[in-house]
Design a protein that fits this description.
Largest sheet of chain C: 6 strands, mixed
Mean pLDDT of chain C: 85
Distance between the termini of chain A: 31 Å
Oligomer: heteropentamer
Shape of chain A: globular
Largest sheet of chain A: 2 strands, antiparallel
CATH topology of one domain in chain C: Rossmann fold
CATH superfamily of one domain in chain C: P-loop containing nucleotide triphosphate hydrolases
Chains: A mainly alpha, B alpha/beta, C alpha/beta
CATH architecture of one domain in chain C: 3-Layer(aba) Sandwich
Radius of gyration of chain A: 22 Å
Largest interface: C-E, 61 and 61 residues
Radius of gyration of chain C: 19 Å
Number of helices of chain C: 9
Structural class of chain C: alpha/beta
CATH class of chain A: Mainly Alpha
Bound molecules: adenosine-5'-triphosphate, magnesium ion
Number of helices of chain A: 17
Strand content of chain A: under 5%
Distance between the termini of chain C: 10 Å
CATH class of one domain in chain C: Alpha Beta
């Protein structure tokens, strides 16, 4: 590109090492965190943590959290919060459970219906935020309580008094779509790998890892799509603009309101996706599902380099943020530290991980 | 022997810290290596992942609580498939054997609720409230359901958040707004039981309103001993931590295992016994 | 002071006004920013909007470009009554604006700011994506035309100098400009070279039939390119003068809000 | 003042009704919310809610929350968050309990020591935030986990295995300072009121309300001091400036770093105050004290009109925010609604309260 | 173009420089904003810093006022080496600055912005509080001196017009100014009347022995008040000229970065 050639000759620009250029991307700090945490656990944890099955094991919660975290990151880049996603997981799980178990709908109907419900709730959140001009924090906080309460009331209503709805696994058994949302993918491949002795087996002879849990595939897919949208499409540009400066964006012709409402809908749908995956996986749903997940999602996004004030961040960063969070929470169970110290460690590791990647970034890019 | 315990209650929950103390005491006595783990909130999805993580380490024994059989069964089955002996404790008596657990140590939350309800009705209670500090936590919800069943009279569930001042205010509010309420059942001794007693006392209704609570705390036991509270429902959860570890250690070493379930409760601590258990409670044993 | 510049000024534009604003009032709570201002802009003319600080110029052009809804008054676009719901509407109708606060996102790159809201696309349907390569090239090229050599199109706007930033906003508006180009103090932070480029650009687009609304505090700049001059004072219009009808001195007096320039007059006259 | 006189004559200013001028203050919206919620409960709740004892009953939890909320509001105005205050309540409670019970110190020593501890932790939070340039959200989140974990470990250590430390009431009995932090104030006055029949008595003859719970007095005191500092002192100006635009403030000569560190210390001390009050009141402390209080405090501040982005808000707003929150959480118990709906109701009331005061403010001040 | 204005220019100031900057370099990551600039300011003189957009003027004065730490180079304050840790330090040493971005908080009132960091107090010890009454009065009065009639001192700065906002920043710096007053394009958004007020103010404080650093793109403004002229170009200094040594035309050429003004020269000369 001629433009680049001209730049290269500018005497006001020092040549910049490749590494420094890389570290300027918000997500790369998070990779540093992943490396640090990995080194820590390699040194302290049971060796089974980094076997294939161990890795799948900590990636599974990371994946569920990550799907929410990436959605939260996009919304945060767009300048808003959604505190209702945790409750949305419970609510969408309840809707999905009732549709499949009580109404006996097949997945091909119940899944789209769940997404529609979720998207509607997201749109309502967005509309209230836009119309009232209130901060999304307070509006979706109301959503947090309302949806959580509604899940409780709904579950009690549909189960005749229990806060737990069971029997989803039986209801979806044999459904064409089930393998898309539950279980492990590429099972045949892993069986074959186990047969030729490349991966470990249990004493009983089944491979220790029966396949890649589908949520991990969803997680990767969501991260890729989100990154593509953010960095390569016009909508992505609008998201950054809407979060960076609402007025400036709107004055430059960005349809800020539409962008924000779409983001709220996407976030709610991400929660619904996690709800569907976990409900099919566990075969049940209860009123506490997704509890506190809204905060974990925000944490994930922030570890991944998003600014709480909006306009800056990345989906890939949230991807790695979720892996850090998943590794730390599950990883401690592989170590011999006393569970009482769990929270001290979790906090300490989070702090060290973010301080570390922050320090690295500053050093490499030469910022003050 | 390496034994891993995965429970659904948190390490800082007074009830579960007693379970953990039991497991640790057993570890010391048997020389077993015990790891006690639990998710940060009542989270069945994360709990199943923690069981998976435990299975990956192929311990010599696994102790789990089963508040949601549907959610946890694949992980527990995977453990059994992997040849790890499993003992369930606290909750899940009904499904333990079906899932392949060797045995169950504990008490059904529901049954304990029924027992408490019957006792309170017997003591003259006619209209009750069940103060639940964690609505949606299935094992706590079952306590209230059991209470309603055993009590017979009308029961209102009062959901609260995790704060003694708020619990106290809510209990007062409930008693203020409905003078017929004469029975209060709390689902946790320190978080609900003690503030409930304080509320009743502040309203000058001590003796007229029955207060009982699940689990023990030194403060609540003192109230029981002083006659301000009716009784505390004790699951002897120390045993739920202690026994499975001992059993699994024996199993690992000598292949020994008891043939049947062990009911650890319910055990109602009333005024006559309360004084004796206060000290044990203050040490985290009861 | 020389008022006659070498720009060619055409005959006064006589066509239908592209935008006509009638008796616009704008209140913010208890603040009356505009108390009834009328104004129009015809194709191919440069209409200067002048006035003291706080006279209401920015507020006025913001109602023209869809940012504010007028409290009272009428806007006609090509003869038809029109009410823009958002700046995007105004833009689509063909009004490009450089706001005084520039409307840029400091954290985003120069290119992304340049094309914000009107990204060049390649690919179709689901695969339509931003053509970043082309965007970068256009952006660097347009900036060069204005006299700024960017270090790189991916530099964040927040790290640009004041004048560089203003140039991005102007280049953007000119690049996308359609029927009306509104410039709110576009040269305030610009250097000598960049200023002359901007004035030349105004002249060029006017010749192409675009109507230009130009706000400035610099009498020389206004006289260099303006065809008509409307002066605002404390939210009201003091009247419109056509080029040649008014002396620079009278214009400067009007711009200062009619108040005498006190004892300074003597010492500074001709230097502002 | 001559300046005002000149203003009044400006033809560019419409005369502004007194009400409109009032409603421009951020806190006055929150008053609207209080009124709305009061009207709602007057209509639906048992009449005992608004007796003197009923009011004290919902003000007590509101007061505890409010002390935290006002501190959180000041910090938020200063542009930062502290997610560790909930855990700080537990941690400070543990420190205080150990000092009074295990070490047997008198309150005159143990209370200042607790505050010093808390202020130190606050200063560390602040220093890390300032030095690293990381968002306070993520730094104090680590604090949330670390302090919560440390409280558990500490309690177990000092009690020999229990998560509850008791005996505080016995330890402080008779201490000169106890009445300042526990029990009811102006007891004689209320007894006298009861004697002359102005307030209700129990059947036993003691007045139904034995006095004003001291936490309510602390609450009012904290609100007054915070308001004074914010609106009338130079430091208050600095707080607004630091939160409004860090760079601009620093360039104008505001010592932004010092201001922020002082705010973190003040927030931690507010948590310690709540800890001391509740520990003496309940006679015990446990590892779960203050759980989720950080979020409730932030909610309180936001209901009270603070912006999450900093630089705007008021302490009086947070004061009323806490009262709204307290009334709504306790109030439902006084109504005959099904308690399963509690969360739906809480969320709905919060949303309606903020929408309402927002609408009022816009209408009165004539904003678009 | 008339270069000789009626301001009185004293003899070239000869005292010890108040601030002397030697070979200042400043890098931002891989961007070299300043590549060795030397500059000094003496009591009672107005030293103009000129240069093209992006030349590094703002970066330079920011290192002088404690916002940036220089990557290399030395700062002497009244002859002693000095390193300001923060703008507050520089302020306390007696350097008052009007930044190009004004350093104002949009959500805060005019008065609170005016006195930000240096609030007037009344009462003592624990009861020391801001004297809001006095503050409001001073603020309105200082603004009036600059030619702006505020609607009210409690209006939020974010709702002021561009020029009103700039005037607040200037009035503030002048009010608190001590030994050195740095003005980064102070008149860019100002009206005719306000500009003449600011230039007169510069003249007034200079006569009081204050050293003034004045950045402008307007040759006329610079020539009207400047005693010495330093021109920056692409991060380097092109040299310093004393008043009378240099013709306005040469200065204008230097300011444009030495590049020829192309074909525009003819058409715009004298109007910028
Ligand atoms: N949102 C608002 N709220 C209250 N008052 C406002 C608002 N916006 C503008 N004003 C007031 O309206 C008046 C006109 O402002 P405007 O920005 O239009 O002036 P201007 O003519 O562009 O001045 P300048 O030349 O300084 O840019 C100002 O006195 C300003 O204080
Ligand atoms: N924080 C930063 N990071 C990277 N580059 C920067 C930063 N600050 C300034 N620059 C670059 O340094 C150069 C000098 O900027 P500066 O603001 O000093 O210019 P200036 O002379 O004040 O120009 P103007 O007249 O337009 O205000 C510019 O090219 C700008 O892009
Ligand atoms: Mg303007
Ligand atoms: Mg500059």
């Amino acid at each position: 590109m001629p433009a680049d050639a001209a730049m290269a000759m500018d005497e006001r620009v020092k040549t910049e090492p490749f590494l420094a250029r890389l570290m300027k991307r918000p997500e790369l700090g998070a990779i540093g965190g992943v490396i640090l945490v990995t080194i820590f656990f390699l040194a302290t944890a049971d060796s089974s943590m980094f076997t294939l099955s161990g890795i799948m094991n900590f990636l599974t919660p990371a994946a569920q959290l990550g799907i929410l975290g990436i959605a939260a990151a996009m919304l945060m880049i767009g300048g808003e919060f959604d505190l209702s996603i945790g409750s949305m997981v419970a609510f969408a799980g309840m809707i999905f459970g009732v549709l499949t178990v009580n109404l006996g709908l097949p997945l091909i109907l119940s899944i789209p219906a769940t997404f529609v419900f979720a998207a509607l709730v997201g749109a309502v959140n967005g509309l209230i935020v836009i119309r009232s001009g209130l901060p999304s924090f307070i509006v979706t906080l109301a959503g947090l309580f309302i949806l959580r309460g509604a899940s409780l009331v709904g579950l009690k209503l549909f189960t005749g008094g229990s806060t737990q709805l069971r029997g989803v696994r039986e209801a979806v058994e044999g459904d064409m779509l089930t393998p898309l949302f539950s279980g492990d993918a590429f099972g045949f491949f892993f069986t074959w790998l186990a047969d030729i002795g490349l991966i470990e087996k249990f004493r009983s002879g089944t491979p220790k890892v029966p396949g890649i849990p589908v949520e991990i595939l969803w997680f990767v897919l969501v991260a890729l799509v989100a990154t593509y949208v953010l960095l390569r499409t016009a909508r992505g540009n609008w998201i950054f603009a809407a979060g960076g400066d609402r007025n400036a964006a709107s004055n430059s012709g960005v349809p800020v309101d539409k962008v924000k409402i779409a983001l709220f809908m996407a976030t709610a749908c991400a929660a619904a996706l996690v709800a569907i995956i976990t409900v099919i996986d566990s075969g049940s749903t209860d009123a506490r599902r997704g509890f506190m997940k809204e905060f974990e999602a925000i944490i994930t996004a922030v570890i991944g380099g998003c600014l709480l004030t909006g306009g800056y961040g990345s989906a890939i960063g949230a991807f790695f943020g979720a892996i850090i969070f998943g590794m730390v929470t599950i990883g401690l169970t592989y170590t011999s530290f006393d569970q009482d110290w769990f929270q001290v460690f979790l906090g300490g590791m989070l702090l060290i991980a973010v301080l570390f990647n922050n320090a690295i970034r500053k050093r490499v890019t030469g910022e003050r | 022997a390496d034994i891993i315990v995965v429970a659904h209650g948190q390490a800082n929950d007074p009830f579960w810290s007693v379970v953990k103390n039991g497991a640790q005491e057993a570890a010391e006595q048997t020389g077993a290596n015990v790891d006690f783990r639990s998710p940060e909130t009542f989270d069945m999805v994360q709990m199943s992942q923690m069981i998976d993580a435990a299975v990956n380490q192929e311990p010599d024994g696994l102790v789990v609580s089963i508040p949601d059989a549907d959610a946890l069964s694949p992980s527990i089955k995977r453990a059994v498939e992997a040849g790890i002996p499993v003992i369930s404790m606290n909750s899940g008596a009904d499904v333990a054997h079906e899932l392949g657990a060797k045995l169950h140590v504990g008490q059904s939350e529901y049954d304990a609720g029924v027992a408490a309800g019957q006792k309170l009705a017997e003591m003259g209670g006619t209209k009750g409230i069940c103060v639940n500090q964690e609505v949606g936590n299935v094992s706590l919800d079952q306590r209230c359901e059991g209470f309603a069943e055993g009590f017979g009279g009308p029961v209102q569930v009062i959901p609260t958040m995790n704060d003694p001042a708020e619990v106290q205010a809510k209990v007062r509010a409930a008693l203020d707004s409905d003078e017929d309420v004469d029975t209060v059942l709390g689902l946790g001794a320190s978080l609900v039981g003690e503030p409930a007693v304080a509320a009743v006392e502040a309203m000058g209704l001590t003796g007229e309103v029955l207060v009982a609570s699940f689990d023990l705390s030194a403060g609540f036991l003192q109230d029981v001993a002083d006659g301000k509270a009716a009784f505390a429902i004790d699951q002897q959860q120390f045993l739920q931590g202690y026994l499975p570890v001992v059993f699994l250690a024996m199993n690992a070493e000598y292949g020994l295992i008891p043939g049947g379930d062990v009911p650890s409760g319910p055990n109602l601590v009333t005024q006559d016994m309360a004084a004796q258990v206060i000290d044990l409670s203050a040490q985290g044993i009861r | 002071m020389t008022a006659d510049t070498t720009f060619h000024h055409g005959d006064p534009a006589t066509g239908v006004p592209i935008v006509e604003m009638r008796n616009i009032e704008k209140h913010f709570g208890n603040v009356i920013a505009l108390a009834g201002v009328s104004f129009d802009i015809r194709p191919g003319e440069c209409h200067c909007l002048l006035g003291d600080n706080g006279a209401g110029k920015s507020t006025f052009i913001k109602t023209m470009s869809g940012v504010h809804k007028p409290t009272k008054g009428e806007i006609l676009f090509e003869g038809r009554p029109m009410s823009f719901a958002s700046p995007r509407d105004a833009m689509e109708a063909g009004i490009a604006t450089v706001f005084q606060d520039l409307a840029m996102i400091p954290l985003m790159s120069v290119t992304r700011n340049f094309f914000m809201g009107r990204e060049p696309k390649k690919g179709k349907g689901l695969f339509a994506r931003m053509d970043l390569g082309a965007a970068n090239e256009i952006c660097v090229e347009e900036m060069r035309k204005m006299g700024i050599n960017l270090r790189g199109p991916d530099q964040a706007v927040g790290t640009l100098s004041g004048g560089e930033r203003q140039t991005v906003a102007i280049a953007r508006a000119v690049y996308f400009g359609a029927k009306v180009l509104i410039l709110d103090e576009p040269t305030s932070a610009l250097g000598v070279r960049q200023t002359s480029n901007v004035l030349a650009t105004i002249d060029r687009v006017r010749k192409q039939g675009v109507g230009v609304v130009f706000i400035s505090h610099n009498v020389r700049h206004a006289l260099a390119v303006g065809d008509r001059f409307t002066v605002l004072n404390r939210g009201k219009t003091l009247g419109t003068a056509t080029r040649g009808e008014i002396t620079p001195e009278a214009l400067q007096d009007l711009m200062a809000g009619g108040q005498e320039l006190a004892q300074l007059e003597g010492s500074l006259e001709g230097t502002i």
